[in-house]
Amino acid sequence: MSSASKPDYPPLALLSDDRLVALHSAIRDWQLTHGSLIKIGNWDDEDNIRARPIGTSIFPTLFPRSRFEEARQLQKDYNELYAAVAEDDTWLAEVLRDMLVSDPFAKALWSVHLKAKEAGYIQPLTMGIFRSDYMLHQQPVSAIDPSPGLAIKQVEFNTMSCAGGTHASIVNTMHHHLTATGLYTTPPTPPNPIHPSALPTTSTISNLVFALATAHAAYGPPKTALATATAILMPVQPFNINICDERPLEYGLWARAPPIPCHRVDFPTDFLARTTRAETGELLFYPPHSTQPVEVSVAYMRAGYDAGEHDEEGMEARVRIETSRAIKCPSVLGQLAGFKKVQQALAGAGVLERFLLSGNKGRVERIRGTFAPMYPLDETEVGLWARGQARRIETAGRYVLKPSLEGGGHNVYRGDIPEFLERAPEAEWRNWVLMEMIEPPKLRNVLLSAVGVHEGGVVSELGIFGTCIWKKRKGGGAEIVENKQAGWSFKTKADSVDEMSVVKGYGCFDTPCLVEDLL
Ligand code: ADP
Ligand code: MG
């Protein structure tokens, strides 16, 4: 067991009270001065800003170098895969068939797509800022591969409003800073794995800024005489508590030479009040304090990922965006591609081959190798079998149930599944997926978060960011214009909780401490 083989991490000398106090204080100061914060409600007054530090690990958490590199190398193929999925509405309609009838959110998004399709999509380019999340899984020893090993298994693939890029970068530079100051230094024995070359860096902020700037440039000059300039528009949720993650992307765009204007607008009410769609399809935004509209080059969605945001106004706003000439990041089809039902369907026989046409067999196998078993809960043969697994308390412990709701916090874990299903209307079960639990090695760390200090067993999740711009092909499909692996985020939680929620204080930003051999 890995926890037994690495009992000396974090090194004992670092766990002394003195050292922990010094680290705690250094971390809090770093977080305050670098905006590693999350706002507390909408309670600012004239003199005070209410915020708390985002959860962070005190030490980097061990992670195998080879698996880290593997996840990074997979990202461009994953980008291409999801671009292709987002351009295949026939396949999406088939996969989401039941949900398009009985799940209000899927139905709402699909109706936006149909309206835009009927009007005729006038922007051939689409953008994706994606994040593929993985956990380490301890493979059982098999006859085929007798070496016990650690594989990366995908938890989920995010296509909409992917957050955490900024927080990840700030905490990453913090761990590097703490290394440089000597606060992680221990006596020469036993060997201490924390050294600069073991801690990777990530430039997620500048990578996302670069990708948005590339899409902005690809849009070109204004198409209508009504505007003299173009700008990126970022629809955001009102009373936003996560501005520290979003704002640095705007600042990065404005700081370019020449500056790329980026405006944020509350979705949907202010968005509806401040935008119009020109007759020729351009999306025009009227910035506050200006009488001149700007033409929106890219609609970068940091809102609209939650079912609750899609009331009448929300729907009107989504239709306005989708039917416009702006490049969408993402389109509604791109958003639907991130539904868990799609992730489950991609594991079906021959499905990856459908989308990764130009691929050698190797890349299909590499992607498939990251899938954890997922089952539908529908009335197919496998679906009925999965229902049996989920309803019996003796078997349910191996699974997590993922209801169709997106936006986080809706999963039902292990022993809670049978009772949850008992209470839920059976007609909805078919919209959900049952996923085998990934079983990561138990490592140790100290976490600082809103739920207090945790010293003990931890579990990490590696998220790889990807940016992609593609062009709708005439006969169907996606022609890739830009495709990049764009950095990573690394989050760690106590092994006693299932959820990785950063807002609730369970998930803490972290840096992997790369080691050659974890087991
Ligand atoms: P969402 O972020 O949309 O709520 P996720 O699929 O990312 O949904 O699940 C939330 C959290 O639950 C993950 O961050 C992870 O900690 C845990 N989780 C999800 N699926 C699994 C799994 N198969 N095995 C172990 N943990 C999982
Ligand atoms: Mg998630």
Automatic annotation (TrEMBL):
Q: Which reaction does it catalyse?
A: gamma-L-glutamyl-L-cysteine + glycine + ATP = glutathione + ADP + phosphate + H(+)
Quote the PANTHER family the UniProt record gives: GLUTATHIONE SYNTHETASE
- Which Gene3D superfamilies does the UniProt entry name for this protein? 3.30.1490.50, 3.30.1490.80, ATP-grasp fold, B domain (3.30.470.20), Glutathione synthase, substrate-binding domain superfamily, eukaryotic (3.40.50.1760), Glutathione Synthetase, Chain A, domain 3 (1.10.1080.10)
Record note on cofactor:
Binds 1 Mg(2+) ion per subunit.
Q: Mind giving the lineage of the organism this protein is from? A: Eukaryota, Fungi, Dikarya, Ascomycota, Pezizomycotina
Q: Is Plastid a UniProt keyword of this protein? A: no
Q: Pathway listed for it? A: Sulfur metabolism; glutathione biosynthesis; glutathione from L-cysteine and L-glutamate: step 2/2
> This chain belongs to which protein, by name?
Glutathione synthetase
Q: Which species does this protein come from?
A: Mytilinidion resinicola
Entry cofactors:
Mg(2+)
Q: Which GO terms describe its cellular component?
A: cytosol
Q: Which family does it belong to?
A: Belongs to the eukaryotic GSH synthase family.
